[in-house]
Amino acid sequence: MAELSHIANEFIRQEIDEFLERPEEIERNIELFSRVRPAMQDIAAALIEGDDEEVDRLTKQALDEGTNALEVMDDGLIAGMGIVGIKFREAIIFVPEVLACARAMKAGMKHIEPILSESGVEPVAKVLMGTVKGDLHDIGKNLCIMMLRGSGFEVVDLGVDTSEDEFIDALEEHKASILGMSALLTTTMPNMGKTIEALIDADLRDDVMVMVGGAPVTQEFADDMGADGYGKDALSCVSLARKLAEEGA
């Protein structure tokens, strides 16, 4: 069984020890980082610190040394962003810190995306993502989008304050197989259900898998709204999207 001491990077060990509280997340991250190479741990650590210049340098160095682009993305960038997502959810860090980490991930992905494009890797699925009508919060949604794109999904970002009609128009235009809705306010959560009802009225519900998320959203609420799945954070969002893509294939 993997232990904290098996992780080479001291900063990563400290992050897990000090900031992760849920047993399943502690176990998952110890297992993850104990198996990845030290160079990938260094990339993850730089991303967690929001150091975009260091992430840029380390990512380029790893690729130049022959490391597979998917390994750098999964074991370095996405692994690091997973911890960022947990810290944001638990209010350990706030919007400015998340934005810095987002810039760092973008700095790494600019080296990886061209490689993936040239290799002809097909996207896992196409996903529409938007914050529902009346809600202007987008940090959590944007974090999910970065993680999804980094995990091989093609994502269309509909932004914030997205009405039912805008979701439907985008679905008809882009022919996405997954639709993701976010809400941070309890007052806007019912608009998720209204959007699902609108999909039914437009005879589109059977054409798309619907996932929902956001701080006040729960699995019970997602079930009541008729969603196909609920993700509690960015990592869960990616896992759920993969599951839905497989079910819809």
Give structural notes.
The protein has 249 residues and is an alpha/beta fold. It has two domains: 115 residues, Orthogonal Bundle (Methyltransferase, Methionine Synthase (B12-binding Domains), Chain A, domain 1), CATH 1.10.1240.10; 123 residues, Rossmann fold (3-Layer(aba) Sandwich). Helix content is 60%, strand content 9%. The chain has eleven helices and five strands. A five-stranded parallel beta sheet has the order 2-1-3-4-5, with helices on both faces. Helix 4 runs parallel beside helix 6 and helix 7 crosses helix 11. The mean pLDDT is 93.
Q: What would the keywords be for this entry?
A:
single chain; 249 residues; alpha/beta; Methyltransferase, Methionine Synthase (B12-binding Domains), Chain A, domain 1; Rossmann fold; 2 domains; 5-stranded parallel sheet; 11 helices; 60% helix; 9% strand; globular
The strand line-up of the biggest sheet is: 2-1-3-4-5
CATH architecture of the largest domain: 3-Layer(aba) Sandwich
The tally of beta strands, per DSSP, is 5
> What structural class is derived from the secondary structure elements?
alpha/beta
Please report which band the strand proportion falls in: under 5%, 5-15%, 15-25%, 25-35%, 35-45% or over 45%. Answer: 5-15%
Could you give the topology of this structure?
Elements: H1 10-19, H2 23-35, H3 38-48, H4 52-64, H5 69-89, H6 95-118, E1 126-131, H7 139-150, E2 154-157, H8 164-174, E3 178-182, H9 190-201, E4 209-213, H10 219-225, E5 229-231, H11 234-248
Helix pairs in contact: 1-2, 3-4, 3-5, 4-6, 5-6, 5-7, 6-7, 7-11, 8-9
